[in-house]
Every structure is written in C-alpha cells, then in structure tokens.
Amino acid sequence: MIEQAEKRGDLKSGMTVVEATGGSTGSSLAFICALKGTGSKCPSGKVIADLMPSMMQHAMEIGKKEGYYYTNQFHNRDALIGYEGIGHELVKQFPGGIDAFCGAIGTAGMATGVARVFRSTMPSTRIIILEPASAPHITQGRTGAHSVEGIAVVSRPPHLDQALYDEARGIEEEEARAMCRLLARKEGLLVGTSTGINVVAAIQLAKELGVGKTVVTVAVDTGLKYSNGNLFQE
Questions:
Q1: For the chain, where are the alpha helices, taking DSSP H only?
Q2: In which domain of life is the source organism classified (predicted)?
Q3: Residue 147 domain-assigned (yes or no)
Q4: What angle do CA 183, 108, 150 make, to 5 degrees?
Q5: Neighbours of 182 (CB within 10 A)
Q6: Inside any domain, residue 31
Q7: The pTM is what?
Q8: Which residues contact 149 (CB under 8 A, 6 or more apart)?
Q9: CB 127 within 8 A of CB 166
Q10: Domain boundary among 10, 40, 70
C-alpha cells in the first residue's frame, strides 16, 4: 500500500500515514514508515463490533487533513498486490502443488491475494477462509464477541471474493490459544492467536485430507503483543 501510494504520488516525503487497526497492520505500517522516514499514526484499541467503525471514521477524518495519507486498508486494492507476493512465494516453495491453503480473514486481503495467484497457477488448490467460531460473520451471518486481534473485524470484508474460496470455517478461540502455547513450547515459535487459528485449521485439514497431501498456512502475527496478557500462562 505504501509503495503504490508513493508511485502514484499520493504519499509524498514529509507526510504522515494514518490507519485504523486492531492487528498487525499498525505495527507493520509503523515499521515501514520508520524505514522510509515517514510519520505514522494508528488509532487503535480492542477490536469490537461497535468500536471499529468509529476508529475507521476517526482515521479517515485525520487522513483528510493536509500532510496525511489514509491507507484505508479495508478498501485499498493495493493491499492485494502485496499479498499476491505471498502467493507467488508459495508457488515457488511448493512446485509439487498445494492441496489446501487456509487463512483467517480480517480485511481478507491475504486470502484474496493468495487465492488470485493459486487460481491461475494451482486451480485445484482448496482455499479455506477462517474466523473465530464465536464471531461467525461469514459462516452463519451473525456477529459475536472474540479477542483474536486483527481478524473478524467487519461483517463482510470488502476484499473478500466469494468466487475465490471453497469453504469458510469457524475455529474455536480456546483451541487457537492452546495452539499458541504449544507452538511456543514445542517449536520455539512465539505467535499470536490469529496464527493459532491458522495452524489449528491447517492440522484439521491435514487430518481430513490424509497422508501425502500438502496443506499450507501462514504465521501472520507475533506473540509479543500478548506478553502482558494470559495467553502464554498454562
């Protein structure tokens, strides 16, 4: 999103990037902006159904001011260009093909970007999108409470293309949290709960598909931001 905005001239030197975020987008933007010498401002908070729209509205109002650029992640098609890069990486890493790919959705940018690449290069790959079982926006059409940062933040993500995925699946948050602890203890991977959801689903799919099949997912967040909570307490 940053590079495309720079190429168009929408984001110029000395401007400040603004985005509403409850997940890794905020820390990622701060990191990239620091590298480029650009300012960043990210209204944030615990993502709940009532709060996210007001966060987005606040970010949009700031973005209208001179010297600011609002990345507008939920409607910014530039995000898909970046996520398509993950799809191309996976194609190169698995020349023998991928039987299934799964990923939790927030803006649905990653799932859509990867699916676009797979549909043109590995059309038989099953694409499964994931959400917390307690907030079944896609699977059941209703809202619900959850504490998984960065996903299930709007009822129907604008980037989500129903033609590009095969199944939507709800994953229990407690299973995801337990998976985070297991990955830290057994694999030395410090990940957050959206990654926990991804890995739980990937293991489910691997068991369903059987021996010899390849299931892929992505570790999308860090467990560092959960250090002050009870995620890693047994």
A1: 2-8, 24-36, 51-63, 78-93, 109-121, 137-140, 173-182, 193-209
A2: Eukaryota
A3: yes
A4: 50
A5: 14
A6: yes
A7: 0.84
A8: 22, 23, 24, 47, 192, 193, 194, 221, 225
A9: yes
A10: 70
Q: Comparing C-alpha atoms, which of 110, 98, 146 is closest to residue 24?
A: 110
Q: Which of 12, 43, 48 is nearest to 145 (CA)?
A: 48
Task: Kindly state the tokens that stand for 229.
Answer: 């909570």
Give yes or no: residues 109 and 193 share one domain: yes
Note whether 1 and 46 are same-domain residues.
yes
Give the model's pLDDT for residue 92.
97
Answer whether residue 8 is part of any domain: yes
DSSP string, 87-142: HHHHHHH-TT--SEEEEE-SSSHHHHHHHHHHHHH-TT-EEEEEEETTS-HHHHS-
Residue 5 lies in a domain: yes
The answer to whether residues 96 and 20 belong to one domain is no
* Alpha-carbon Rg for the chain in angstroms: 18
pLDDT of residue 154: 60
Per-residue CA distances from 171 to 41, 102, 106 (Å)? 32, 12, 14
Mean pLDDT by 10 residues, the chain (234 residues): 94 93 81 92 68 83 94 88 93 97 92 96 97 89 78 74 95 95 95 94 98 96 80 80
Helix axis angle for 78-93 and 109-121, nearest 10°, is 50
CA within 13 Å, CB half, 103 = 26
* Lateral strand order in the sheet of 100-104: 167-171, 126-132, 100-104, 215-216
What's the DSSP call for residue 224?
Answer: G
- Give which of 203, 149, 211 is closest to 179, Cα–Cα: 203
Residues 112 and 19 in one domain: no
Whole-number Å distance between alpha carbons of 230 and 234: 8
